[in-house]
Amino acid sequence: MPSFSLIWLLAGSVLCLTELFLPSAFVAFMMGISALMVGLLSYLGLSNLWIQVAAWLLLSTILIILSRRFLQPRRRKSKIQDAVIGETLTEILPGHVGRVLYEGNSWRAKCDDDKITLPPQQIVYVVRREGTTLIVMPDHFLS
Question: Does the predicted TM-score (pTM) go above 0.85?
Answer without folding.
Answer: no
